[in-house]
């Protein structure tokens, strides 16, 4: 078919519909006259909601939910965190030992940026490393052992992404324990 245009030549007519599936049927997503996405028959626009408890959402930002039913279904879990959201997990006054010990793993699957801030509050040096895992059982050392001198700070930022991330720590010298404060800081995606 020589000399036949394969693409739509008029950009105004080059449009696509976006569909979602209800499990059996493909259905187009709907918007109102202002091009705002309709969710379960409701339009979400400006404002702030601080808490919802068995209420109807008229619009805005949802900060907390307690036993709320959202039109068309129930909110069972949160699968992402807004980019403006901030998460901090503090582990303070952690005593080091002679062998690497891991802090509890953090599920980092829905986080965009995250790092470990380590302050060595003790008299001796410590070592720390970041470990990552896809299954929470088998761990890979993402950032090799880093020495954190007494009275100093280190920030470890993972270089690879997997579902789980944790920090492992130990005394730098056998028998020379110290105390560290570890802060996991993250932003959502």
From TrEMBL:
Residues 108-187 form the DUF6385 domain. Pfam families: DUF6385. This is DUF6385 domain-containing protein. The lineage of its organism: Bacteria, Bacillati, Bacillota, Bacilli, Bacillales. It comes from Hydrogenibacillus schlegelii (Bacillus schlegelii).
């Amino acid at each position: 078919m020589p000399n036949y245009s394969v693409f739509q030549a008029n950009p105004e007519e080059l449009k696509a519909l976006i569909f979602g599936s209800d499990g059996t049927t493909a259905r187009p997503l709907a918007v109102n006259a202002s091009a705002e996405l309709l969710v379960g028959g409701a339009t979400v626009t400006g404002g702030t909601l601080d808490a919802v408890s068995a209420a109807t959402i008229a619009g805005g930002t949802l900060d907390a939910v307690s036993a709320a039913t959202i039109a068309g279904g129930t909110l069972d879990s949160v699968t992402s965190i807004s980019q403006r959201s901030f998460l901090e997990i503090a582990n303070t006054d952690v005593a080091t030992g002679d062998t690497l010990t891991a802090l509890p793993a953090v599920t980092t699957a829905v986080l965009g940026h995250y790092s470990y801030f380590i302050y060595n509050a003790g008299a001796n040096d410590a070592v720390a490393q970041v470990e990552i895992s896809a299954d929470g059982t088998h761990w890979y050392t993402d950032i090799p052992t880093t020495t954190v001198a007494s009275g100093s700070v280190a920030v470890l930022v993972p270089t690879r992404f997997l579902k789980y991330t944790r920090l492992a720590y130990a005394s730098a010298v056998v028998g020379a324990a110290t105390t560290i404060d570890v802060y996991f800081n993250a932003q959502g995606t």
